[in-house]
Amino acid sequence: MADVAIAWRQYRLERRMFWRNPSAAFFNFALPLIFLALFGAVFADDQETLDVIVPGIAGMSVMSTTFSALAMNLTFLREQGVLKRIRGTPLPPGAYLGGIAANAVTNTAIQIAIITVAGKLLFGVDWPKDPLALVVFVAAGVVCFALLGVALSHAIPNFDSAPAYVNAVFLPVIFVSGVFYDVDNTPAILRDIAEVLPLKHVIDGLSGAMVTGEGAWSGLVVVALWTLAGAVLAVRGFRWDAR
Q1: Which residues contact 32 (CB under 8 A, 6 or more apart)?
Q2: Torsion angles phi and psi, residue 99, rounded to 5
Q3: What range does the domain containing 166 cover?
Q4: Contact, 138 vs 43, CB < 8 A?
């Protein structure tokens, strides 16, 4: 119980630090709304396309708040020597890392709530037809992309190169996986690549939960495989000190 209490205090500290960083708050919460506003203006009279874009941006938000945020944050903390110093204090490592992870999960939950409300009020998307599926796919995406983000941080040599490494993965994945369009309308080779990636299946699950009401549960198998790979790489490559 002591570790849980310490993790809670670390989480509260992470939340305060997050809100004191305006640029982080902007890219976490305002950017998805900007995408929604832009695409909503372009496709205002095309409800079918909006039904694709809203869950797509929700899936992108899950990836950005976990994969991108953790990859960059852990690289910064490692290269600045923060992780090494934390390792030498009485603070339990699990409580410290748990606070960081819980902060990312909170950002994801807030983003999904914002996108869901905006989709209903501004873009004609109904309230989620399957709330349980929404929770399951968001949770599966959070765990998967968080572990993959930790794993990627091990490959980033320094914080200056972190944005390049993260965006080299993040940007191609969101475009191939159908964040802004229906993957079924793309060339076969892009569809095949998307089927291998976890984001496409997270988006399908969110689309089923938010729009169609039809579950895409088989996609959880692909997400689970990436989660397992991410867990192995995240644990085996983790370092407390800089290179």
Answers
A1: 57, 60, 61, 111, 114, 115
A2: -65, -40
A3: 27-79+102-236
A4: no
Number of structural domains the chain divides into: 1
The values of phi and psi at residue 88, to 5°, are: -90, 5
Within-domain flag for 16:
no
Task: Show the tokens assigned to 207.
Answer: 């689309």
H-only helix segments in 124-176:
131-155, 162-176
CB atoms within 10 A of CB 86: 17
Give the model confidence (pLDDT) of 122-162 as tens digits: 777 778 888 899 999 999 999 999 999 999 999 998 888 98
11 within a domain of the structure (yes/no): no
**Upper half-sphere CA count for residue 15 (Cβ side, 13 Å):** 14
At position 145, the amino acid (one-letter code) is: F
Q: Is residue 190 part of a domain?
A: yes
